[in-house]
């Protein structure tokens, strides 16, 4: 169940934003609860831990920025999005690792795109695959996977912290990761677009400087997928 905290001191704005969020979430068939608050104090006093916060900035007593700082002190993983008419606080939003900064008047399309990008990040944070061997089962979070390599019948999952090896089919892993930002760039490799730094006609270079092969037959589709991924980050 997705939990959303919506905090704005103007009821008309809460009603408008809540309506837009409900419409977008129902299109995704997402189970959710939206909790509305008229100020930061009420939100913090509720002690409910949300996955996603939409905060106005210009509120009485406790501003949206101050509210976000208190949220971040308690919940480092929560996604915080500011919706405000105040342009001048955009740099302060970086201090609390805000996911996005939406200016009023609100565009329904803009809000929907930002929401969907946030949902993708939440899914990535919570989701995992299981690497099963005869003696053990290892839980690997999707967000930690750099790329997956196939050598004969063995799979090597290269993560940010280790390499996990086990017997499995690359096609089955590809299917498990189809809803995330992964691309099969070669018959032996699946790469996480999140960690791609650059590419040329032969190699994809990752942010940790590792290089993996890209098939010439996959180059065009990979280029499109990577550009689409980068564009999604800007929304």
From TrEMBL:
<dbReference type="Pfam" id="PF00072">
    <property type="entry name" value="Response_reg"/>
</dbReference>
<dbReference type="InterPro" id="IPR046947">
    <property type="entry name" value="LytR-like"/>
</dbReference>
<comment type="function">
    <text>May play the central regulatory role in sporulation. It may be an element of the effector pathway responsible for the activation of sporulation genes in response to nutritional stress. Spo0A may act in concert with spo0H (a sigma factor) to control the expression of some genes that are critical to the sporulation process.</text>
</comment>
<dbReference type="GO" id="GO:0000156">
    <property type="term" value="F:phosphorelay response regulator activity"/>
</dbReference>
<feature type="domain" description="Response regulatory">
    <location>
        <begin position="3"/>
        <end position="119"/>
    </location>
</feature>
<feature type="domain" description="HTH LytTR-type">
    <location>
        <begin position="129"/>
        <end position="228"/>
    </location>
</feature>
<dbReference type="InterPro" id="IPR011006">
    <property type="entry name" value="CheY-like_superfamily"/>
</dbReference>
<dbReference type="Pfam" id="PF04397">
    <property type="entry name" value="LytTR"/>
</dbReference>
<protein>
    <recommendedName>
        <fullName>Stage 0 sporulation protein A homolog</fullName>
    </recommendedName>
</protein>
<feature type="modified residue" description="4-aspartylphosphate">
    <location>
        <position position="56"/>
    </location>
</feature>
<keyword id="KW-0597">Phosphoprotein</keyword>
<dbReference type="GO" id="GO:0003677">
    <property type="term" value="F:DNA binding"/>
</dbReference>
<dbReference type="InterPro" id="IPR007492">
    <property type="entry name" value="LytTR_DNA-bd_dom"/>
</dbReference>
<dbReference type="InterPro" id="IPR001789">
    <property type="entry name" value="Sig_transdc_resp-reg_receiver"/>
</dbReference>
